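The authors assume throughout that readers already know how a fold can be written as discrete tokens. What matters is that the chain and its backbone geometry are given together, residue for residue. A single example would do more here than another paragraph of explanation. For illustration, here is how one protein appears when written out as sequence plus structure tokens.
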Amino acid sequence: MSMKYTFFLSLFLLLVSCRVNVPTAMLGSARSRSYELPEGNLQVSKERNISWNTRSAFADSVVGDWAEMPMADWENDGKTTAPRILLARLYAQKYIPETNKVIQSLVPRGVTGSQWLLNPQGDYDFTLTTLTTILFLFGDNPDLLYPETKDHLVHVLLTESGSKFRKHVPHSLGLFIDTENHILMTEGSRYLKNQWLNAHGNSSAQFDNAQNGMELRLHNFLCGLTSMGLYEFNSLPYIGYTIAALLNLEAFGSEQIRSDARQVLDYMNWCYALGSLELNHFPPMRRRYEKAGIRDFASNYHTAFMTTWLHFLPDTFPIPSRDLVPAHTLVASCMPYRPADDAVKWQFNKGNGYFVQFGHGPGATPELYTAGENYLLSAGGANRGKNSHIVPRPMCLLLKDGAKTVEETVHLYGPSDDYMKWNNTGVFQNLAVAAGSVHVPKHFHPVTVQGNWAAYSLQDSITLIVYSSEDFGLFLVEENVVTRELFESIISLNSDEVKLKSSFIFHNQKVIQYDVNAPHRLWVMQSENGNELNRKVDTWPLMNGFFR
């Protein structure tokens, strides 16, 4: 019996006997193998012509609020809160002597990598990421970060340096790959400490990222995120820490690493822009199951970054008021990255609409979105087994109405309330179907009702046609049509309610067939006008679709 097998068996028995949960990193929340997805026919938007403001009243208020917080306890709150208070004080140039004294008194509060039974002091990489930001923003300004404070930060608190690029969970004998947020935070901080030392007089080869291999390893890892997509896509809470680590690399790395990190951020923000409407974003996500009950849109960590960036815009973009995750508004306020132009535009202006599909590779769920000029229909995805760590969401119709929770939207899911059973990939152009009833907010009043059918005339000249029964739901969204005429046409074309559970005829006679009880590895939609669709979601390209 090999040593690795013996270790794994002993570890499993130990965890079971102790009734300790195996860490999520060891049960599928980290990528187990590499694969490249086809690019698809959509390209990530990268063009930049916006002249962003250098200051933002919103960002200043965020920094000011954090700077005025009482200093948090390092042992209990040193993972995120305490280092962010230090960052805000230095950025706001407040309490400088006190802040330097605090930093000089600190000691490392743990080690990097996922925290688990054999690495109980893990997660220090969360702390490292913010400390690295502090070093690069203020390390060359002795009036803010005193020389002795900087030395303590570099040589004591920033614990990772050298050529080791660790992808695996600490103390797992290389059996388990760590999650991408941990890899980015740990190895990004290691790389940047090397760079700092090399740029400030230490010529040792172990700190030269070109010689020690760190530049190439980090480059390859970042390129993998744009060819394979993020494994922890839309994650709560980890997407925020992935972005924070990327922002460090985009701001402070070599020209190559800055470019690589910017490409990943641009990819993420382009997906966000096409999958959101006026900063409402409710996509399927990978990790964590305990977040599955979240129903409000403000909990989205990516939205906190995006909203903060948009407050630096020079124009009159209508930036909706949001309750945001404050930790990530602070990080976004302090860092120089800004999204590409179209990642801003398409959040608010959907043009004539589109239909897009984002693939996430084998064992994952895709994202699907269809939009009109004034709405976005967001698919919810499907769980791929407990170890997939995928949280599907209801299919939601997002309008420009200021809705803050799922309950304030038209939404659809099924069967039952058990999200592990949902295959909520039943979104096509302007259409959503699922094996459950349609949930319509009480403040939406139908224009007409006939049996299980109802028609609604909504804001911005939007017509909503709904069919809802206990085990099947459907809704169609159209713009700039006569509601009653469309309603009568749709009912006439789809009068057989048995057939309706497997096919739908649009008012232009186009026919779409579907299986709302499809296995979770398949797209619910089957064919369009008799032409089979590619239903094998594991093979879908990174980005595919069309703009009208």
Observations:
- Residues 8-27 have pLDDT under 50 and may be disordered.
- DSSP finds 17 helices and 21 strands in the chain.
